[in-house]
Every structure is written in structure tokens, then in C-alpha cells.
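Minutes, project check-in
Item: structure for the 374-residue chain
Input as provided by the requester:
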Amino acid sequence: MSIDLAKMPKLGFGLMRLPENDGQIDIEQVCRMADAYLDAGLTYFDTAYVYHGGNSEKAVKEVLVKRHSRDNFTVATKLPAWCLKEEADRDRILNEQLERCGLDYFDFYLLHSVEEGGNGETYDRLNCWEWALQKKQEGKIRHFGFSFHGTPEYLEKTLDAHPEVEFVQIQLNYADWENPVVCSGRLYEILHSRNIPMIIMEPVKGGTLAKLTPELEAKFKAVRPDSSAASWALRFVASLPGVMTILSGMSTPDQMADNIQTITHFEPLSDAEKAVVEEVRTIMMSVPQIGCTACRYCTDGCPMNIAIPDVFKAVNTRRLYNEEFRPKSFYDGLINQGHGRAADCVECGQCEGVCPQHLPIIDLLKDASGMFDK
């Protein structure tokens, strides 16, 4: 049975940053969060083949399939280009995903991280678009789309070539609206002009927009004293026409409660509030930041076990707060946990090949080393 994409719940539960206990997903905690989410009338759970090393999909079975009626939730997952070598891998991975999740079908299925170069070429070379439509006919997929990390020009080219696509997932938040790499605003305009439903990822930019400097936080608090910084980021996205669902990678019950409150009692941004958001964005962009969203695609294949997103978090913290002790202590803690130093980078380029933000990670690690490896 198809779903009316125009009437989707506006908040999706992203299963990429789940709470952990001793390095394993804290299933009991996730169950409590999922129950609160479902109790609020929300239904969209987003996972992927590679999230939490494959354990995110397994969590779907434990948290949802074993505990709730199939009619009460929908599941989205993704086919990863970087795991495909031949056409037979498409069915192999899909069947593994269905088994992991304990499902007979996926409500939403995406080609993961379509962009120029490797991923886009792989999906074309292995006929993944046609294959997905076949899986839809077989009933293993209900709705088909793709997540996107490329240029506006490539998005238009892809949409022209594949009018069968039902929805597109893009990164969008107020900080990235005019980002020349992410191009959130331009991607939104292209999709909205074509009336293509949008799923939004990184609305809080990997948590960055939930933890602002006291100066920026005060600007929001002056207008809405009881509202969190994260709620402003969600409301910015939810105020945009054409948005189908906003994914939030919630890691704690408090984050879940705050996001549910924001969406279930949603108020579009007023013109005055939009002006405050723009003021915050302008100030924020004046401080050079590494645009890492902590997706952690870069870490699994790092031969030196460098916790790259965490290193960049330390760099950004030092730049934002102009304070050395805490970020240096955090960085040293990573090394004590067995991670490699930024200076240990062997410049293999694996990380840059999978980074959705197209960051020059090798050079950035050199900068981080100069900051912390003294």
C-alpha cells in the first residue's frame, strides 16, 4: 500500500547516532525513545546498511519489529554504492537488509549519497535505478528515492534522467543555506520547483546548531526564552514548503522530547524570527569552522584508527570558544582510548573518498596536528 508523501509526519527518527553502552547500541534506551516517538503519532524510522557498522538495521528488528505492529511504523534504508562491485550485490545487500530488520519490505528505499564521480557512476553502471523499480514491482520496496550530496547541476541532471524518483533526501539547515559546497538553498529550490517531496537530513548540522556559543544562544533566548537552539533549527526547516520529513539523529530521551514538542506544537518562523536566524547565521559563519557533520563514514576505513570527526570537533571547539584546555583535553582523551593522532595520517585518501561534505580531510588533519600534537 502506497503512502501519501504529502501527509508524512514532519519528524523522522534517524538511526545513525543512537545511544551506546560499552560500544554497543543501548537497545533499552532506544526502545524507550522509539516508544515516545510512536506515542506522539510519528512513524518514520531512517537507517542504512552502514550505520553503526550494520547494527542500526539490526536495531530495527529489536526495537520495532519485535515490539510493535507493522502498521504503526515505516522504515527507510539505503543501498551503498561503495559496497557494490557487481549487479549481484544489489540483491545480496537488499536481502541482507530485510533479514537484519526482520521485514518483508521497506516502505522507503534510497540509493545512498548520489553525487558526481564514484557513487553516481556506480549506480548508473550497475543499473541500480532500473533494479529499484523492479524491486518495487516485486513488493520489496514501496517508495523509491535517493539521498544526495552533489552539486545543483548534477541534481538537475539526475532528476532529468530519472523522473521515476518519488522523493529526494538532501542536507539542509540554516547554516548551510548559502554554503558553496553543500548548497542547501539551491538544492531546495530545484526540488521545490519540480514539486518533488524532500526528506531533510542534518537539520541541526550534526548537533552543531543545538550547542551554540552563549552569545548566539542569547539571541534566540531573547525572543523565545523557553525554546532550545535545536528547536529553532527544526522550525527553520519545517517552515519551508515541500518538506516531507525532517530527520533528526536523536541520541537521548531529552533530545527526543524536545524535538517532539517542537514538531507536534509546530509554529512557523515569523518574519522577525527569520531575521534573528539570519543574524545568528551571519555571526556563526564569520568564525571559520570545519563543516563536519560527524556521519563517521570516514572512520571505518582509516588504517590509523583516527577518530576524524572527533578531532574536528576539538578543532571547532577551540576556534569557537578561543579556549585551549578543554579541546586539548578532549583530544588527548581520544588518544588514550587507542585512537591515532592527527599526525598519524598516512594520506591514503580513503576518508576524502567517502566524505559527503567533500572536506579536504588530509590537510585539515595536518592543521589539527599543528594545534594539538605539540
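Outcome recorded: The longest helix spans residues 271-285.
No further action items on this chain.
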